[in-house]
């Protein structure tokens, strides 16, 4: 079966096929009533030094305590967000044969459409279909649905701007120059890497038995996410799962493994997962922001001092992506390969 969506639509499912059943999803655990930090992007780009200083402190605290925050007043038009979501949903609604042309086998194929995470090694299949597009430095887009390419280009340009400004604020929160991260690993250069990942989680007759995405952390520095209003994202915070309910017209942002490497462990990547429901399809659209593929990311020398040794090996960004994509998702297992004993 090419996709979960096809499986659901081909038969009247009343139970989950055995190859999708997880032995322990922990979805029955109570969710903690936590509030994720909120970052007002307009204050981050403000010319008022007092306002900007306060929001940089808030941003640093969000990275330090959560690795996850909501961004409001980001300047991306609501119409563009809506068009991006409709275009993504329309792509997943295409006939199977139209999507199969993008059934890429290689990690760096410009466009890949498929199911689960890595079906070749996944012991249990995920209740998830995906569309992955390398959108920068070379822009790619599927030829259908009509008009999607322009919307996709505009949307990705806007999220790159947001990522760049957030990285300036994060640099300053670390006591570094605003341009430090962007310049050190060339995130703002013309060769920086941006990957768009759209996820479709169809309704499931037994949602407690499956996983949309198991607990994992993201590669890259930052992931910027929006979803179609259906809950399902959960974040690990202080040993508990926290259900994330974003404000209207906000973006969700989380720190990735390369932020943890770069900051020598001060700002850690956050483990999160996607659960599904039995009522409505959930769609999420994430853009992962990182340096050029040939950049070696290692701890910033300025953060390896005061008796704190280097906590991670450096690694070429391309090699890290290959490592992550060669195995099943499992917590922070990829990052564990780079940890140094201090």
UniProtKB/TrEMBL annotation:
It holds the Pfam family DIOX_N. Belongs to the iron/ascorbate-dependent oxidoreductase family. The keyword Metal-binding applies. GO terms for molecular function: metal ion binding; oxidoreductase activity. This is ENTH/ANTH/VHS superfamily protein. Residues 191-291 form the Fe2OG dioxygenase domain. Keywords: Iron, Metal-binding, Oxidoreductase.
């Amino acid at each position: 079966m090419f996709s979960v969506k096809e499986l659901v639509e081909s038969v009247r499912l009343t139970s989950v096929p055995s190859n999708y059943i997880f032995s322990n999803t922990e979805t029955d655990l109570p969710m903690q009533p936590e509030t994720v930090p909120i970052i007002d992007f307009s204050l981050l780009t403000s010319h008022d030094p007092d306002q900007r200083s306060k929001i940089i402190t808030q941003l640093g605290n969000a990275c330090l305590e959560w690795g996850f925050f909501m961004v409001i007043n980001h300047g991306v038009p609501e119409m563009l967000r809506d068009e991006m979501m409709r275009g993504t949903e329309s792509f997943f609604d295409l006939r199977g044969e139209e999507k199969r042309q993008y059934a890429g086998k290689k990690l760096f194929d410009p466009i890949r459409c498929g199911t689960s995470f890595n079906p070749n090694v996944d012991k249990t299949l995920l209740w998830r279909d995906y569309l992955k597009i390398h959108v920068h430095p070379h822009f790619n887009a599927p030829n259908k649905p009509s008009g999607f390419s322009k919307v996709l280009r505009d949307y990705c340009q806007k999220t790159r701007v947001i990522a760049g400004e957030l990285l300036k604020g994060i640099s300053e929160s670390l006591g570094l120059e605003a341009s430090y991260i962007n310049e050190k690993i060339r995130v703002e250069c013309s060769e920086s890497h941006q990957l768009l990942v759209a996820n479709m989680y169809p309704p499931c007759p037994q949602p407690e038995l499956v996983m949309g995405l198991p607990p994992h952390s993201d590669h890259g520095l930052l992931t910027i996410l929006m979803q179609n209003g259906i809950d399902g994202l959960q974040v690990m915070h202080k040993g508990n799962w926290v259900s994330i309910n974003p404000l209207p017209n906000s973006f969700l942002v989380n720190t990735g493994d390369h932020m943890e490497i770069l900051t020598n462990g001060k700002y850690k990547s956050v483990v999160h997962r996607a659960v599904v429901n039995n009522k409505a399809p959930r769609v999420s659209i994430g853009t992962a922001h990182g340096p050029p593929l040939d950049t070696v990311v290692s701890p910033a020398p300025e953060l390896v001092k005061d008796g704190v040794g280097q906590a991670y090996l450096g690694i070429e960004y391309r090699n890290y992506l290959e490592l992550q994509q060669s195995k099943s998702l499992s917590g922070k297992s990829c990052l564990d390969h780079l940890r140094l004993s201090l």
